[in-house]
Design goal:
Helices cover 33% and strands 17% of the residues. The chain is α+β, with helices and mostly antiparallel strands.
């Protein structure tokens, strides 16, 4: 076999397998059995000067692939094809997965396509239905494997064990790539396997009794046989590849805190987009099978560069984190707006109620979303957890989510790319600096660059100069290293603001304003980055500006009243809650 003893998927260093035969049972250590078989195989092959595979194959980064000895071939055939007529789900899939783990795909392909040996034909003829024809001339081992083992083999061919990328000349799989390159959304096809194992009874009790009455002899027992169903189901998903640990932790932990699914079928609870799966290749101590497989595939030559069509490609090794999201062709609210046009008043009201409920649940858990926008709201297909007839709007993108009791707003992680768009922030997060304060501010970010060797996104940290007055405006941002050690950094010329739900309330108001005005933005924004083009416009925004702006652009009286509440000054907004906002007449007008 393969002398590979590194890494298992279990916490235990040693695992015992039961290699069952017809008459006897033996137990062996999984770290010694294959080495013993290799030694025996080498000895036999030296004597016979031939091996089952015929040639030695060099396995890069692992070991050399030896010849299969007769014993090794019997074990390999046994692990793949074993059936238990008393328990249809008894199998050696975990053993097969351990054997194939870290083997190059060409080696795996050769191993599963080995010809079924004669002793395998004899064994399978006794346990499989007569309708399933096997022989040693045309049948490869993969075709007679137990369904659970087939599933392991099938997964070996896909990225992270289940994802396939199918680009065409006209169809690009990239849904969105952040301007700084730290985040990429990619459409993929997920393969899930549906199996069914059925024990077929060969004769009933009535048939046995009838035979005894007819012959007077107890018939020899006929062992039950097993039939099975193996289906591969495919469906589209969205994979969000991430470079930032902070963004990954926000996406996963925030959902866990509010009780939203982060793995599996995806329960769309509380109008929040669930995760179908998530991967962390940076955690060296992780025992999660998904993390181990993802990390291995990042180093696999097959996935060094993934063609995404339309001239786009992806190098997964640059993204140690990934999350999997449900996919819909409608995209996010921004895409929906572009393709379908303005929403009706009832559609705006319905979307507002659903996203408002999501924010209410998040705030109840002591969290702040921190990046509510047209891009972070998406349509979701019902799963049964929410009483909805059709698709509904749900909140996504929790990369910038933070805790109200411990977090400060506008932090920039070690990647240098913020997990938010400045266009979502309220006036209190922007400040005017005098020339001496600008020097202190610039010295802070120069220290960040030299001390932590990081290039911070200039769209966020460069002072915005008002062309009319010459005044400089900046975002109240700060650097957050992974180790949280900020003592090396000098003081900033402004006070940092704690995370508060009033920030999400402002962002929620901006989304409703855009929808109520058929797409009219409140402030000039870079569509590619989502960042503001002029900080001074937001910093100077007050209740007088709000009334003039809203009464001019919004025609519906109830919408005007609601927006004046949502886009009020910091003191008034701080007294609001999403529960109170959702009781506004705008959301219940018939």
């Amino acid at each position: 076999f393969v002398s590979h003893t590194e890494g298992t998927y279990d916490d235990d260093d040693t695992k015992t397998y039961d290699f069952r035969t017809k008459d006897t049972s033996m137990h062996v250590d999984d770290k010694s059995v294959f080495s013993q078989l290799i030694d025996e195989g080498k000895k036999n092959d030296e004597e016979s000067e031939k091996g089952i595979l015929g040639v030695k194959h060099k396995v890069e980064k692992v070991i050399e692939m030896p010849f299969f000895s007769d014993v090794a071939m019997r074990l390999w055939t046994f692990f793949l094809s074993f059936r238990n007529s008393q328990n249809a789900y008894d199998n050696y899939a975990n053993t097969v997965e351990l054997i194939l783990y870290k083997l190059p795909f060409p080696t795996i392909t050769e191993m599963i396509n080995l010809k079924l040996p004669t002793f395998g034909v004899q064994y399978l003829s006794a346990v499989l239905p007569t309708s399933f024809h096997v022989d040693s001339i045309y049948t490869p081992l993969k075709d007679v494997s137990h369904n659970a083992c087939k599933a392991v083999i099938h997964k070996a061919g896909y990225f992270a064990g289940k994802f396939e990328f199918r680009p065409t000349l006209q169809d690009c799989l990239v849904m969105h790539r952040s301007n700084d390159g730290t985040t990429v959304y990619v459409r993929a096809v997920e393969h899930t396997i549906e199996t069914e194992e059925v024990v077929q009874k060969q004769e009933t009790e009535g048939e046995v009794e009838e035979s005894i009455w007819a012959t007077g002899v107890q018939p020899a027992p006929i062992e039950d046989k097993i039939s099975s169903v193996f289906n591969v189901i495919t469906h589209k998903v969205c994979i969000k590849f991430l470079k930032s640990q902070q963004a990954y932790v926000g996406e996963v932990e925030c959902r866990k805190d509010i009780g939203v699914s982060i793995q599996g079928k995806g329960h769309s609870k509380h109008f929040v987009v669930p995760l179908l799966d998530h991967f962390n290749a940076a955690d060296k101590a992780s025992k999660r099978h998904q993390d181990i497989r993802y990390k291995f595939d990042l180093e696999d030559e097959r996935f060094a560069t993934i063609d995404l069509g339309g001239g786009e490609s992806l190098e997964p090794s640059k993204f140690p984190y990934a999350i999997v999201l449900p996919f819909r062709d409608d995209g996010n609210l921004f895409d929906y707006f572009l393709h379908h046009g303005s929403l009706t008043k009832n559609e705006i009201r319905e979307m507002g109620i659903q996203i408002g409920k999501a924010l209410h649940m998040i705030h109840q858990k002591g969290l702040v979303h921190g990046n509510v926008s047209l891009y972070s709201i998406t349509l979701v297909t019902p799963t049964g957890d929410i009483d909805q007839i059709g698709p509904y709007w749900a909140l996504a993108d929790f990369a910038g989510a933070c805790n109200q009791s411990t977090s400060l707003m506008a932090g920039i992680p070690s990647t240098g790319a913020p997990n938010y768009m400045t266009s979502t922030f309220p006036p209190e997060l922007f400040v005017k600096l005098n020339p001496s304060e600008v020097k202190i501010y610039n010295a802070y970010w120069e220290k960040v660059k030299s001390e932590y060797v990081v290039n911070v996104d200039p769209h966020v940290v460069l002072p915005h100069v008002d062309q009319a007055t010459g005044d400089s405006y900046v975002l109240r941002c700060h650097y957050e290293p992974d180790n949280k050690d900020m003592e090396k950094l000098p003081q900033l010329p402004y006070k940092l603001l704690p995370a508060r739900e009033s920030i999400d309330i402002w962002s929620f108001g901006r989304v409703l304003f855009t929808l109520c005005t058929a797409g009219h933005p409140m402030f000039a924004t870079n569509i590619k980055t989502g960042h503001l083009l002029a900080y001074n416009e937001v910093a100077a925004f007050d209740q007088i500006n709000a009334r003039d702006f809203i009464y001019t652009q919004v025609k519906d009286p109830l919408a005007q009243d609601l927006l004046l509440l949502l886009l009020s000054d910091y003191e008034q907004r701080s007294s609001l809650t999403m529960d109170k906002i959702l009781r506004h007449p705008f959301f219940y007008e018939q």
